[in-house]
Amino acid sequence: MALEDLEKEFIGLSSYPEEELEKIIKEVGFKCTMCGKCCTKEFNDHVFLLQKDLRLIKEKNQEAIVPAPYFEICDQNGIFYVSGYALRCKENGDCIFLKDNRCTRYDLRFSICRIYPYMLHRETDENGKTDWRQISGLNQHGEYNDEISGEECKTIAKETIEYEKEFLLQELNFLKILKEHFLENNLKPLRKVYDEKMRDFQKGKKIRVMVFNGEDFEKCEIKKEDYFMKF
User: Fold this and answer.
1) What is the pLDDT of residues 121-151, one digit of tens each?
2) pTM
3) 141-166 burial by CB neighbour count: b if 16+ within 10 A, else e?
4) Strand partners, 90
């Protein structure tokens, strides 16, 4: 997403009535049944880490993090850039902390884990209509129509909006720093190089990635197999 689009998204999010999300949360009445599905490849792609999550996991388990997948851009030298880190996965794509449908590191509980399945961002549906999406995996896991107190709805809504804002701010800061970095170092994005290096990556070759840490970029070299932790 372009910088201008992210800024519009942030403005839209900032003006979204918190009471509206509270109402939706109460109407849906989601109840977690501890099925563990939200931690599997079937339901989610990867766990993106906000900066506060990154600081926490670095203290506990440095080996658990990798550059977030789907690198945004590649310069003419074949170096990729990405807006943050994500958790590594098991070989089947499930979260590395999932065992017997339970989280083995519930004490960590990253930001997205705390608010899931609630969310608040704009998505384009199969009919091309763009609108707010507030719930993920509706009717695919958990139970619904549970009684949720007004106070709990308020807390969930507040935490959800805070998460989405922090995520957008991280993306915005990434794009701003990236623009400065490219100007200072006479770099430019090249789609041809991006495609060539991605083919190498898919074949198991190592690539270079610059990962945004909230202030600057950290150098990293990684192969496709590094995204999966063997047990």
Assistant:
1) 998 888 888 889 999 888 888 899 999 999 9
2) 0.90
3) bbeeeeebeeeebbebbeebbebbee
4) 229
